[in-house]
Amino acid sequence: MEKTENKSKIKIAFFGTPMVAVYVLDELEKAGILPDIVITAPDKPKGRKMLVTPPPAKVWAEKRGIPVEQRLQRS
Question: Where are the domains of the chain?
């Protein structure tokens, strides 16, 4: 069977917020799979000074130029 040059690329979205999401994203990147968008929780205050801090998955995506959508988590 011959490989075709016109294979359509599968588009994926990645949902994740905590640091473990970065490990998963790193492994996907090693496998040559990058998400087309990352959905993560909104930035929130952290530390004594309550500095607004982005989630690790957002930082990872922005370093690679991947669009980020931030949504509130529903409980």
Answer: 13-70
